[in-house]
Amino acid sequence: MPQLNPNPWFFIMLISWLTFSLLIQPKLLSFVTVNPPYSKPPAIPNTTPWTWPWT
C-alpha cells in the first residue's frame, strides 16, 4: 500500500515543521499586541440576592 510509505511524507512534514518553527513563528512572536494586558484588580460582582415574587 503506497500510503504507508513514509519516505516522501515524512520529509514534507519535517520541512514544513522546520519552516514553521524557524521562520514563521519568530516573525509572528515579534509583533507587539495592540492592547497589552495590564494589572487591573478584578471587579467584585454585586451579589445581592434576588427577591422572587412567589416566595
From TrEMBL:
**Listed GO CC annotations:** mitochondrial membrane; proton-transporting ATP synthase complex
Q: How does it sit in the membrane?
A: Single-pass membrane protein
Q: Which species does the entry assign this protein to?
A: Pomatorhinus ruficollis
Q: Which domain of life is it from?
A: Eukaryota
User: Is this entry keyworded Calcium?
Assistant: no
What is one GO biological process annotated to this record? proton motive force-driven ATP synthesis
Chain ranges passing through the membrane:
6-24
State where it is primarily located.
mitochondrion
Q: What is this protein called?
A: ATP synthase complex subunit 8
* Keyword Transmembrane helix among record annotations: yes
The family this protein is said to belong to: Belongs to the ATPase protein 8 family.
